[in-house]
Amino acid sequence: MSDTTTGQCWLVTGGAGYIGSHVVRAFQEAGIRVVVVDDLSSGHREYVPDDVPFIVASILDTEVLAAAMREHGVTGVVHLAGFKYAGESVTRPLHTYTQNVTGTVHLLEAMREAGVGAIVFSSSAATYGTPHVDLVTETTPTRPESPYGESKLIGEWLIADAARAHALRHTSLRYFNVVGSLPGLADTSPHNLFPLVVKALVEGRTPRINGDDYATPDGTCVRDYVHVVDLAASHVAAARALAAGAELEPVYNLGSGDGLSVRQIMDAFAEVTGIDFSPEIAPRRPGDPDRIVADGSLAARDIDWAMRHTVADMVRSAWEARPAS
């Protein structure tokens, strides 16, 4: 399918990663040319389609980025590359800032050199820290509690400053717990709930819940789970809007509006997989808030955000995409 963005070409940094590879597929389905840059530090070469130009490089290499943009006629960037582990960022702050802050500086400089004037930035709910509200909106104060969250907020600031200086069109998308998969594009993170549950079930172990005495209906933490395909669709919608010259908000939350508890996720895994299990209850993890759920109404208004997948869809797609044992 093609549209008014035919002739556009978008560079996806981190396009060999879990979320990035789904964004690449969404651009392809929309008939929009795409180029991938990824250093494969956590991505997978096989996640990039054979017909997509792929540059194995770090976003810290300004000249390589600028050359790739010029060579492929890049008109916009979707910036997903970065060090994305909030917990590990506490013990590796310098690495986190180098990848996420310095890397974004180099990317923006390459865009300026190559005359690329639009960027969609992959930000994070970690910018909010532990919000003490029932529903997080874009005006909820940002109080990041890890170097990762801080680096994402600084990334937003950098892009906004570059926009003021160089007429850059931009928006930043803050998302929460991204789950589900297309076939062959599994989430392989060692820290995320879904791959941890899948790994435990595949290995015949009992999945674990960290704490069941929170102030929520079933005692387990409530989080905002969104399907990666829905998320990818809004990246394309944001890119199309920027390409068309639309005025977008500087940030959007991609959230469900109601959330799901960890126990609800476990129940869905048992039902979808047919594996009867009762999750092990472990102690709470320090710093886990009772509930974090975001309002996605602004994104629904402007960038085609919608929760098109149920929790069963999320679990089923993650289970079916599990790596072969």
UniProtKB/TrEMBL annotation:
<dbReference type="InterPro" id="IPR005886">
    <property type="entry name" value="UDP_G4E"/>
</dbReference>
<dbReference type="GO" id="GO:0003978">
    <property type="term" value="F:UDP-glucose 4-epimerase activity"/>
</dbReference>
<dbReference type="InterPro" id="IPR036291">
    <property type="entry name" value="NAD(P)-bd_dom_sf"/>
</dbReference>
<comment type="pathway">
    <text>Carbohydrate metabolism; galactose metabolism.</text>
</comment>
<feature type="domain" description="NAD-dependent epimerase/dehydratase">
    <location>
        <begin position="10"/>
        <end position="255"/>
    </location>
</feature>
<dbReference type="InterPro" id="IPR001509">
    <property type="entry name" value="Epimerase_deHydtase"/>
</dbReference>
<keyword id="KW-0413">Isomerase</keyword>
<protein>
    <recommendedName>
        <fullName>UDP-glucose 4-epimerase</fullName>
        <ecNumber>5.1.3.2</ecNumber>
    </recommendedName>
</protein>
<comment type="similarity">
    <text>Belongs to the NAD(P)-dependent epimerase/dehydratase family.</text>
</comment>
<keyword id="KW-0520">NAD</keyword>
<dbReference type="Pfam" id="PF01370">
    <property type="entry name" value="Epimerase"/>
</dbReference>
<dbReference type="GO" id="GO:0033499">
    <property type="term" value="P:galactose catabolic process via UDP-galactose, Leloir pathway"/>
</dbReference>
<keyword id="KW-0119">Carbohydrate metabolism</keyword>
